[in-house]
Amino acid sequence: MLNPRQLPQQLAQQLSPVYLVAGEEPLLLEEALDAIRAAARKAGHSEREVLEVGTGFDWNRLAEASGSLSLFGDRRILELRIPNSKPGRPGSQAIGDYCARPPEDTVLIISCGRLDASQRKSAWVRKIEQAGTFLYVWPVSGRAFAGWLAQRLRERGLTPSREALALLEQRAEGNLLAAAQEIDKLQLLHGEGPLALEQVQAAVADSARYDVFDLSDAVLAGDPARTLRILHGLRAEGVEPTLVLWTLARDLRLLAELAAEQARRGDPAGVLKRERVWKSRAEQLRTALRGTPASTWETLLARAARADRALKGVGEGRPWDELLQLAILFARAAGAQR
Question: Are 169 and 146 in contact (CB under 8 A)?
Fold first, then answer.
């Protein structure tokens, strides 16, 4: 399985007869598809046919398209788009049959959205990997977004100051398409070379998008400033406060349980395994625990209960104010020993 950074090298070495491009970042998906199309055209594949899989799609069309001759004897690009990422049994069979004998004059590009872990290991995906190339685009967030942003700027010949990069990251976080557009605008306005904070302030709108998982990352990272920014963004986007509270309370309960297990000299790893916590998230939790007494997490859980009463209208305080105070206290506790 490739990631987008590996695609240019793969295309330079050899054009595969079959590509599957899937994932969760529309901008990177489309750029990967454009790169494959460009490489195919450079290799002489001048004709292009697109099959859109929808309700009632006849999968015999894939075999017919692969078996038909080009009108002008040219090499072809055949695109198969599966918007729901579920070809079903007939589609899986048709894709498997194609991959068993891919035509020499055709490059098949299959595109779809998110594939879960079981789908990425399914029979039709394995057959594509055996015959060609599977590229998956993972979400870009947190530190990965900062790295992507810096690389994108370098590719456009822009050298931002540290303050300019930080502001651009803040204003475009979670929205790769907006970030790419803002970088192109900055290049158009100022050309290649150094990029100052004032230039970014004047040109870049605030188009950051967040979800509750971003909030969890910011809180566990012990970053009150980013926590505050994300909370304001979630509120502006109309996210239900109950969902925000659920996210914070879930992490607090887990931290309280882990801290109690440590106090008993037990094995926190057992708790993490039972709760099916991912490896990257488990490291975040362990870092947040360092040097913070179990009583802190219990106190914060009590604050979460207070916020819950405010949300239900049976307690004092305004819901978003309570959530803001809870999240900031949580972030400070998680970052106390850093």
Answer: yes
Sign of the CA dihedral with 302 first, then 279, 113, and 98 last: negative
What percentage of residues in the chain have a pLDDT greater than 70? 97
Residue pLDDT, tens place only, 270-325: 777 777 777 777 888 888 888 788 899 999 999 999 999 999 888 788 899 999 99
Query: Position of tokens 């079959």?
Result: 18
Q: Tell me which residue has tokens 């090499």.
A: 75
Instruction: Give me the amino acid identity at 138.
Output: W
Q: How many CB atoms lie within 10 A of CB 97?
A: 14
**CATH tag for 212-334 (out of 1.20.272.10, 3.30.70.100, 2.40.30.170, 3.90.1150.10):** 1.20.272.10
pTM score above 0.90: no
Architecture of the structural domain at 142-203: Orthogonal Bundle (1.10)
Residues 156/167, Cβ–Cβ less than 8 Å: no
Strand positions, DSSP E, the chain = 18-23, 45-52, 75-82, 106-112, 133-137, 158-160, 193-195
> What is the residue-wise DSSP string for 120-176?
HTSHHHHHHHHHSEEEEE----HHHHHHHHHHHHHHTTEEE-HHHHHHHHHHHTT-H
Retrieve residue 279's tokens: 């490896």
Q: Where are the domains of the chain?
A: 4-137, 142-203, 212-334
H or E, element range at 302: helix 294-311
Q: Does the structural domain 4-137 have CATH classification 3.40.30.10?
A: no
Cα 262 from Cα 154, distance rounded (Å): 45
- For residues 7 and 35, the answer to whether their CB atoms sit within 8 Å is yes
**What is the C-alpha to C-alpha distance for residues 69 and 62, in angstroms, rounded to an integer?**
13
The CA distance from 318 to 176, in Å, is 33
Cα(38)–Cα(142) distance, rounded to whole angstroms? 31
Tokens of 283: 């490291």
Dist. CA 257–CA 26, nearest whole Å: 38
